Amino acid sequence: MKEIIAYEMSFKGALKYKNDINCIPFQEKYWNEYMKIYNECFYEMREDLEIEPISFYSDYMQMKDKIANTFLYVQNGEIMGAVSCCGNEIDDLIVKKPFQGQGIGEKLLLWGINHIKERGCEEIILHVAEWNQNAVRLYLKNGFRIRKKEKVR
């Protein structure tokens, strides 16, 4: 079984950014598309790190605790990406594969930061696998700092 290292990262301070995307609350009608995008986004990492199941989502009930905190970036009826904002934590930031590398992940991250800040939270946290260096770079570039490094497995 492979070792998994994760970072707990935090963001404090003001954000000098105005949202230029609009996200909508999760809706059940998007479940199948969301499930496919989510599983595709995490497939390579979960396979490489031997995390079972490799395709995490398979049933809508798995989403029940996150529905109220998950927001979708939808264009022309198609999900481009999504982010979950649970309390003061950003989680499950995903971008549909064909749209990766176009800045959508950064826009979703900043949208999530603003959304959480608007609810009065001073500090925002997130957790990311060390394996996911693209995400780590994105978070560092946008003001997050590594607060803790831990061996998960």
Question: How would you describe the overall organization of this protein?
Answer:
The chain has 153 residues and is of the alpha+beta class. 27% of the residues lie in helices and 30% in strands. The protein contains three helices and seven strands; from the N terminus they run E-E-H-E-E-E-H-E-H-E. The chain has a seven-stranded mixed β-sheet with strand order 2-3-4-5-6-1-7, sandwiched between helices. A hairpin with a 2-residue loop joins strand 3 and strand 4 (78-86). It is globular and about 40 Å long. It starts with a strand and ends with a strand. 25% of the residues are buried. The model has no long low-confidence stretch (mean pLDDT 95).
Keywords:
alpha+beta, globular, 3 helices
The gist of it:
Helix content is 27%, strand content 30%. Strands 2-3-4-5-6-1-7 form a seven-stranded mixed beta sheet, sandwiched between helices.
Q: Which regions are unreliable across 5 or more consecutive residues at pLDDT < 50?
A: none
Gyration radius from CA atoms, angstroms: 15 Å
Determine the fraction of residues in helical runs and give it as a percent range: 25-40%
Distance between the termini: 8 Å
What is the SS-derived class? alpha+beta
Average pLDDT taken over every residue: 95
User: How would you describe the shape?
Assistant: globular
Number of strands: 7
Question: Percent of residues in beta strands?
Answer: 25-35%
List the secondary-structure elements in sequence, H or E.
EEHEEEHEHE
User: In order across it, which strands form the biggest sheet?
Assistant: 2-3-4-5-6-1-7
Number of helices: 3
